[in-house]
């Protein structure tokens, strides 16, 4: 197992490990380990426990909340060398893809597209036809590792239809803070819920206290999951590495649908929101993604820098919706086109004001458009950071109920427009979850953005929203977790943590 010890070597040889996409930094760890096997991982954790040293788990560090940012003097465990797709087990005729935690999402996509030509033998893959199955969570950033996405319960455009990461996890292998191991499985539908007791592979019985709340019904990634019918596996999904290391993952693959998509332009937020309301009532819609005027102008301004060419937008375009439709029978989309065209016209748009994503080249163009925005925002932030080191993107991650979404969004927009800060808002309108990205360029704008963010979170909570629907809390959103749940509920989450990691050695500083 590769290890790099000593602050100076770490700073010199792997400086990027000191931050994630949030650009937040906390300190230099004294040791970075790259386990290759579960035994390596167990040894590192046992050793860290024996020396009373906290550990930080590091995936691909595409996280935006500092969760994978190590603290000064800790031990960092990077999963990049645990990166093999292990096997495909066929459970009741359905494929479960078994992966190491460091396997990236793009690796899974490439494997499923061409399993027969994979560079190494994967038992069970001989029954898998090319492109027949897919793994639905698509959190935009395909370099993310499976372990990181499970730890944050990541989700993406198609979570509107297929649910977040949580909906696709069949089981997890875990290594606890003392090096003991355990496997937690999703029970079959209709089986009894979890009795809150876990028996480890060494035979220790851990009793995990119940939480005094149910997780919100809206999309949410803040705090531990809690519901009367949850499985043990649900507790670990989205726990941000504070309960155990994820050392193996079984994902239930889904039959790959044929997806048709389109990017439709509108003249205002309201027109786009009205069309989204129409789509919510339609069957077989897989994604409803929104782009505000700031997002379109941002692409216009910086399109020259994009690797893939994106055509000019229609002149009157102010906002856009990227929609996806599952065509499970050839020609099905044609049967609904008339109804959709009527809805589009009533929202001031039409199929003429739509870029279609039907063939591969068109799909690729829409894909580039969708993926360009967050990366562009991040690269502008990186540029602004050159003149002021503290600069970072301040991005909201709140989701709302259908009833609260529009009033909350309008209030947020009024506050942001009054502030005069540069911003772009885009995201998962189908889940009533739009990321508002504030883009400061000076220290004064950064202070204004941070103050405004506090006000936006207070507003989100007043409207029954969540402070994080998909990015998690990490190290930089902790105060909002308290504001959302209250001191008592957070104390109960800390008791859950203490039942599994009594000394708080795993990912110290995350969540609490
Ligand atoms: C351009 C861009 C777009 C994005 N879009 C989305 C989006 O649409 N939806 C979304 O959900 N997210 C999005 N993200 C955020 C990010 O990709 C996700 O949070 C992702 O899940 C992080 O995966 P990672 O491997 O990079 O994890 P990291 O950032 O390395 O870690 C995330 C957390 O998981 C913990 N962790 C990592 N591996 C393990 C393990 N094996 N065991 C236990 N804990 C572990 C870390 O300690 C940390 O707390 C985006 C990021 C970028 C840069």
Please mark out the parts with pLDDT under 50 across 5 or more consecutive residues, or reply none.
none
Helix content: 25-40%
Level-1 CATH class name of the largest domain: Alpha Beta
Tally of separate helices:
14
Q: What is the mean predicted local confidence, pLDDT?
A: 95
CATH fold category name of the largest domain? Uridine Diphospho-n-acetylenolpyruvylglucosamine Reductase, domain 3
Strand runs, count: 20
Rg over CA atoms, rounded to whole Å, is 23 Å
Write the layout of secondary structure elements.
Layout: E1 2-5, H1 7-13, E2 31-34, H2 38-50, E3 55-58, E4 75-78, E5 85-91, E6 94-99, H3 105-113, E7 133-134, H4 146-152, H5 159-162, E8 169-175, E9 181-185, E10 197-199, E11 205-207, H6 232-236, E12 245-252, E13 254-255, E14 259-266, H7 269-281, E15 285-291, H8 293-302, E16 319-326, H9 332-346, E17 354-357, H10 360-387, E18 394-395, H11 402-419, E19 423-428, E20 433-438, H12 443-462, H13 478-485, H14 487-500
Parallel strand pairs: 2-4, 3-4
Antiparallel strand pairs: 1-2, 5-6, 6-12, 7-13, 8-9, 8-12, 10-11, 14-16, 14-17, 15-16, 15-19, 18-20, 19-20
The structure holds flavin-adenine dinucleotide (FAD).
Residues 20-21, 57-64, 67-68, 79, 101, 139-141, 144-145, 147-149, 151-152, 154-156, 240-241, 245-246, 374-375, 378, 470-471, 474, 507, 510 line the site of flavin-adenine dinucleotide.
């Amino acid at each position: 197992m590769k290890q790099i010890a000593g602050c100076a070597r770490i700073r010199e040889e792997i400086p990027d490990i000191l931050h994630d996409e949030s650009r937040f930094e906390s300190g230099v760890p004294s040791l970075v380990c790259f386990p290759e096997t579960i035994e390596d991982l167990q040894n590192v954790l046992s050793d860290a426990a024996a020396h009373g040293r906290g550990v930080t788990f590091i995936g691909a560090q595409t996280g935006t909340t500092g969760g994978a940012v190590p603290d000064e003097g800790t031990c960092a465990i990077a999963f990049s060398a645990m990166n093999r797709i292990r096997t495909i087990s066929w459970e009741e005729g359905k494929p479960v893809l078994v992966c190491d935690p460091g396997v990236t999402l793009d690796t899974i996509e490439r494997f499923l597209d061409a399993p027969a030509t994979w560079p190494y033998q994967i038992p069970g893959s001989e029954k898998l036809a090319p492109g027949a199955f897919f793994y639905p969570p698509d959190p935009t950033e395909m370099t993310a590792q499976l372990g990181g996405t499970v730890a944050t319960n990541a989700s993406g455009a198609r979570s509107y239809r297929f649910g977040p990461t949580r909906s696709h996890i069949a089981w997890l292998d875990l290594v606890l803070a003392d090096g003991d191991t355990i496997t937690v499985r999703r029970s079959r539908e209709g089986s009894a819920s979890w009795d809150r007791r876990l028996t480890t592979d060494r035979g220790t019985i851990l009793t995990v206290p119940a939480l005094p709340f149910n997780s919100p019904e809206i999309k949410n990634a803040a705090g531990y999951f809690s519901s009367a019918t949850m499985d043990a596996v649900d507790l670990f999904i989205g726990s941000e590495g504070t309960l155990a290391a994820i050392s193996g993952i079984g994902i239930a693959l889904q039959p790959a649908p044929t997806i048709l998509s389109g990017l439709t332009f509108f003249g205002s937020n309201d027109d786009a929101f009205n069309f989204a309301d129409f789509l919510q009532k339609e069957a077989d819609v897989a994604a409803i993604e929104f782009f505000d005027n700031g997002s379109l102008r941002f692409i216009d301004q910086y399109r020259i820098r994009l690797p893939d060419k994106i055509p000019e937008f229609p002149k009157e375009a102010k906002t856009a919706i990227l929609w996806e439709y599952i065509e499970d029978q050839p020609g099905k989309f044609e049967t609904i086109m008339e109804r959709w065209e009527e809805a589009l016209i009533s929202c001031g748009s039409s199929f003429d004001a739509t870029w279609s994503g039907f063939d591969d080249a068109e799909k690729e163009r829409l894909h580039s458009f969708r993926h360009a925005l967050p990366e562009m925002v991040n690269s502008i932030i990186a540029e602004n950071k050159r003149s002021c080191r503290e600069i970072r993107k301040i991005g909201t991650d709140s989701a709302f109920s259908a009833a609260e979404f529009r009033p909350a969004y309008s209030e947020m927009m009024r506050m942001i427009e009054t502030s005069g800060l540069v911003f772009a808002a885009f995201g998962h309108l189908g889940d009533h979850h739009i990321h508002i990205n504030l883009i400061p360029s000076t220290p004064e704008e950064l202070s204004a953005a941070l103050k405004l963010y506090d006000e936006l979170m207070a507003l989100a909570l007043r409207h029954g929203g969540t402070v994080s629907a998909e990015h998690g809390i990490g190290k930089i959103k902790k105060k909002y977790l308290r504001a959302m749940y209250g001191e008592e509920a957070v104390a109960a989450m800390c008791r859950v943590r203490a039942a599994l990691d009594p000394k708080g050695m795993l990912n110290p500083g995350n969540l609490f």
